[in-house]
Write a structure and sequence with these properties.
There is one protein chain. 39% of the residues lie in helices and 21% in strands. It has 7 helices and 7 strands, in the order E-H-H-E-E-E-H-E-H-E-H-H-E-H. Strands 1-2-3-4-5-7-6 form a 7-stranded mixed β-sheet, with helices on both faces. A hairpin with a 2-residue loop joins strand 2 (49-54) and strand 3. The longest helix has 20 residues, at 186-205. It starts with a strand and ends with a helix. Bound molecules: coenzyme A. Coenzyme A (COA) is lined by residues 24, 78-80, 85-91, 114, 116-119, 121-122. The site of coenzyme A (COA) has 18 residues, from strand 4, helix 3 and helix 4.
C-alpha cells in the first residue's frame, strides 16, 4: 500500500473518490457535504491531499483545506474504500494528512466536524479535543460546504451554534500530552451522538 501526497497524475481517481464518499454516506444514513469530481481534482492538484493506492487501485483519500487566512486548516473528506476497511488504513491516512498539515501550516489550528465515531477516535488520538462550533473557523466558505448536507436545516436553525456533527480541534499552542492520553471513551461519544439525534431529529419531525 502506497500512501502519498496526491498530484495531477491522480486525477483519474476523482470519480471513484466522489462515488465512494456518496455511497458510504447513503449506507450510513448520515449527512455529508457532497463533492464533485472537479472539486476533488482541485484538491488532488494543490499538494494538500493524501491518497492511498494498492498498486493502481484506489484505497483511500483525505485532504487539507485552508480557512480564515491560514488561521485554521481542516482535514476533510476522509474515505477508505469498503474493500480496505478495518485494517488500520484510515488511521495511517489520517496521521499522514495531520503531519502534512503540521509541516505546511505549523501555526494553524487543525479542525474537523464529524458524526463518525471512528473519526472522533482517530482525532482524539492525534491530540484533537471536542469543542463547540464557536471555537472553529467563522469563515463562511467553510460553513457553505454544509449546504449540501441533509442536516443543514439544523445548523441554520441553531444559528450555526450546533448540529449533529461534533467539532474537534487541535491547537498547536495548547500544551499537549498526547502520550499520556487514555483511549477515548467510545460510549461517551455514542451517547453524545444519540442525545444530539434525539434533540434535533425529533424537533425536525414535529
Ligand atoms: C470511517 C472510515 C474512514 C474508517 O476506515 P478504516 O480504514 O476502516 O479505519 P481503521 O481500520 O483505520 O480504524 C481506525 C479506528 O476507528 C475504529 N473504527 C473503524 N470503523 C469504525 C466504525 N464504523 N465505528 C466505530 N469505530 C470504527 C477502529 O476500530 C479503529 O479504532 P481503534 O484504533 O480504537 O481500534 C471508513 O469506514 C469510511 O471510509 N467510512 C465512510 C466515510 C466516513 O464515514 N468518513 C468520515 C466522514 S466524517
Amino acid at each position: 500500500m502506497k500512501i502519498v501526497i496526491a498530484n495531477e497524475t491522480h486525477f483519474k481517481y476523482a470519480q471513484i473518490i466522489c462515488d465512494t464518499i456518496a455511497e458510504s454516506a447513503k449506507v450510513r444514513g448520515t449527512g455529508i457535504a457532497k463533492r464533485t469530481p472537479e472539486y476533488i481534482q482541485k484538491r488532488l492538484q494543490n499538494g494538500n491531499a493524501i491518497i492511498a493506492l494498492d498498486g493502481d487501485t484506489f484505497a483511500g483519500f483525505c485532504y487539507i483545506e485552508v480557512w480564515g487566512h491560514e488561521k485554521f486548516v481542516a482535514n476533510s473528506g476522509l474515505i477508505v474504500h469498503p474493500d480496505y476497511r478495518n485494517q488500520g488504513l484510515a488511521k495511517r491516512i489520517k496521521k499522514r494528512v495531520f503531519e502534512l498539515s503540521r509541516e505546511k501550516f505549523p501555526n494553524a489550528k487543525i479542525f474537523g466536524i464529524t458524526t463518525g465515531l471512528a473519526v472522533m477516535k482517530m482525532n482524539y488520538e492525534l491530540g484533537y479535543k471536542p469543542v463547540t462550533f464557536s471555537e472553529l473557523t467563522d469563515d463562511p466558505e467553510f460553513w457553505k460546504g454544509c449546504q449540501t448536507c441533509k442536516n443543514f436545516d439544523i445548523l441554520t436553525r441553531t444559528e450555526r451554534k450546533m448540529c449533529l456533527c461534533t467539532g474537534m480541534l487541535y491547537d498547536p499552542n495548547a500544551k499537549s500530552k498526547i502520550e499520556e492520553r487514555k483511549k477515548p471513551n467510545s460510549k461517551s461519544f455514542e451517547r453524545l451522538k444519540s442525545i444530539k439525534e434525539s434533540l434535533f431529529l425529533k424537533k425536525k419531525s414535529k
